[in-house]
Amino acid sequence: MALETSNTQRAYRAPCPGCGAPVSFLSAQSTHAVCAFCQSTVVRNGDVLQRIGKMAELFDDHSPLQLQASGTWNGQSFTLLGRLQYKYGEGTWTEWHAVLGDGSSAYLSEDNGAYVFTTAQAVQREMPPAERFRVGATTAINGKSFTVASNQSVALIAAQGELPRLPELGTSFAMVELRSQAVDAKGVGEVLSVDYSSQPPSVSMGKSVLLEDLKLTGLKDESAKDEKGRQFACPNCGATLTVKLAGSQSMSCGSCNSIIDLSQGIGGELKHAIQDEPVQPLIPLGTTGMLQGAQWQVVGFQHRMGTDPSDPDEHFGWEEYLLYNAKRGFIFLVDSTEGWSVVRPATGAPVVSDNRQSATYLGTRYQLKESYTARTNYVVGEFYWQVRRDQVTENRDYSSGKNLLSLEQTPNELTWSVGNTIDSATVAMAFKLKDKQDLLRRTDVGPLVSTNNPLMRQEFWVFIVVVLIFLAMTRCSPDCDPNVENCSSSSYRTSGGSFGGFSSGGGHK
After folding, report:
1. Segments of 125-233 assigned E as strands
2. Which domain of life is it from (predicted)?
3. Is the separation of the CB atoms in 105 and 95 below 8 Å?
4. How far is CA 26 from the centre of its chain?
5. Do the beta carbons of residue 29 and residue 103 sit within 8 Å?
6. What are phi and psi of 393, to 5 degrees?
C-alpha cells in the first residue's frame, strides 16, 4: 500500500515476497530493495514487489554511516537509503545511495576514511568501451580535460536498503575513474566515474567531502561497536590479533610478521604471506603526534626499495609511515636519507608536460627529479589497501623548492601525491622522540646563524665536507642493504601515498 510522507513524493510499502515482512520504498527513484529480514532482493513494479533473488550478507566494515542518516550537501538535505559494497583487485569500497530533498538520487562513496559525493552526469557523446581508457592518458569529456586514474574490473558483493538500480551480484564489470586537471580554490578536483554494469554505461561526477562538512545526523554510536568482533587468530601462527581500524584491508602479525589479507572480512578465509628480515621503525606503531595542526597516529609502516631503470645495479631504500586521523583520513610520513616529508594523495590530476620533465599543480610548476621502479619489501601494522610484499609501481618524483609531487602507477591505477619536506627536529618534537633525535636527523640541518661561532671557520667546513663525502660513499657501498636499510645515493626519494594509497577517495572508491 502507499503511505503519505512529509515530502511531495509518496512512499510505498508492501509485504516481502520472500518472508512477508514489510518492505518500504521511501524514494520514488528506487526500483530495488533488499529485505532487512530475509535478504531477498525485490524489484518494484508499481505497487507489486517481485522477488528476484537473495542478497549476500554485508560484512561489517565499522563505517560511521548507516541507513537513515541524513545531512546537507550543496544546500540540499539528503538521506541515506541504500548501500552497495563492491570488490576490486586491491580491496573493497562502499557506495551509499542518497536521496536529495528534491527527490533525485546521489551517491556518497566511502573508502579509506575518505568520501566523495557524486551525482549523475549527462555526457555529450557516447562513452567508448572501457578498454579505450588507458591509465595515465588524458581525455576530454563535456569540454573538460581529465586524466584516467583507474580502470578496474569490479563486482557487487552485497547490498542493503533501497536502490535506483542494482548490478548483478558477483558479476564482474568495468569501472573507470578519471580525475580533472582543474581544481577549485581548496585544491579539490572533480572525480568522474564511468560504470559499465549497464548499457549505455552510467556516468557520475563528484568531489571529495569531509563528513563534518555534510553536517550528518543519525550516525552510528561508536560506543556500540563490538571490538571483540574484530579479533581473530593469525592464520600462520595462531596468535590473537585485533583489527583497530575500521577500514583495514591488510595487516601484519606482531608475533610472526606475516602479512594478512583482510579484504574479504575477518570472517572469510584469511590469506597470509610470511615475511623475514623484520625492519624496526624508528617511530613505533601506535605513537601519536601533532603535525600540520592535527593529531595523527602511526598505524602502518613499510620499507620500500627503488631501482633506477637506467642503472639496474643501483638500488636505494626508504621508509614510509602511514598516519591516521579520524576526521582527516590518512597521510604519509616519508623518511629518506636526505630528509623527511609529509605527503597525501591528491584529488586532482596535475598537468604533465609532453616530455614529462615538469608537472603543474595548483599553479605551482614542479621539475622532474627522478624516475624509478619501487618495490615494497617489508610492512608492519594496518593498511587501508591490500598491501603485498613485492608490490611494484613505476614512480616519478617532481619538486619545487620544499614542495613535492609524486606519481605512482600500475597498469590499472595511478596515484598522485602532494606534500612538502620537513626537518627532523619537527618530527622529533611531533612524536616526542627527543631521545631519538640523532637517529632521526638527516641532511636537513640548517646553517648556524652566528658568524662568530668557531664552528663557522673555513677549515672546519672543509673537514665536514670530506666527512660527508666519505659517509655518502660508505652509505652507498655494498655494505648498505637497501632491502632492510634506508639507503640512497644522491637522489631524494619523495615517494609517498604508495600504491593503493587512495585516501582522496573517488567515484568508485
Report:
1. 138-141, 144-163, 173-183, 189-195, 202-209, 231-233
2. Bacteria
3. no
4. 32
5. yes
6. -135, 160
Position 349, amino acid? A
**pLDDT classification of 151: cutoffs 50, 70, 90:** very high
For the segment 262-319, what is each residue's pLDDT rounded down to a tens digit?
877 666 667 888 887 778 899 999 999 999 889 999 999 999 999 988 887 788 889 9
Q: How far apart are CA 391 and CA 90, in angstroms?
A: 11
pLDDT of residue 194: 95
Angstrom distances, CA of residue 395 to CA of 112, 361, 405, 408 = 22, 17, 11, 5
Whole-number Å distance between alpha carbons of 15 and 22: 5
Distance CA 27, CA 179 (A): 30
Residue 246 binned pLDDT confidence (cut-offs 50, 70, 90): low
Cell of 439: 637517529
**SS3 per-residue string spanning 316-357:** EEEEEEEEEECCCEEEEEEEECCEEEEEEECCCCCEECCCCC
- φ and ψ at residue 132, rounded to 5 degrees: -80, -15
Distance in angstroms (rounded) separating the CA atoms of residues 180 and 140: 10
Backbone angles phi, psi at 25, to 5 degrees: -120, 105
| Residue 185 C-alpha from the chain's centroid | 22
> Helix and strand tally (H, E) in the chain?
3, 32
Look at residue 68 in the predicted model and tell me its pLDDT.
Answer: 92
Global model pTM greater than 0.85: no
Distances (CA, A) of 98 to 21, 80, 94, 137, 278: 24, 4, 13, 31, 45
Which of 68, 284, 123, 194 has the alpha carbon at shortest distance from 507?
194
Domain range list for the chain: 2-54, 70-214
Give bridge partners of residue 174 from the DSSP assignment: 153
Residue 12, C-beta contacts closer than 8 angstroms, at least 6 positions apart = 1, 2, 3, 24, 25, 44, 47
CB 347 within 8 A of CB 187: yes
Query: What does the pLDDT look like over 476-504, one tens digit per residue?
Result: 444 556 665 665 543 444 444 333 443 33
| Residue whose grid cell is 551480484 | 169
Provide CB contacts within 8 A for 30, sequence distance 6+: 44, 81, 82, 97, 99, 162, 163, 164
20 φ, ψ (degrees, to nearest 5): 90, -5
> What does the alpha-carbon distance between residue 36 and residue 16 come to, in Å, rounded to a whole number?
10
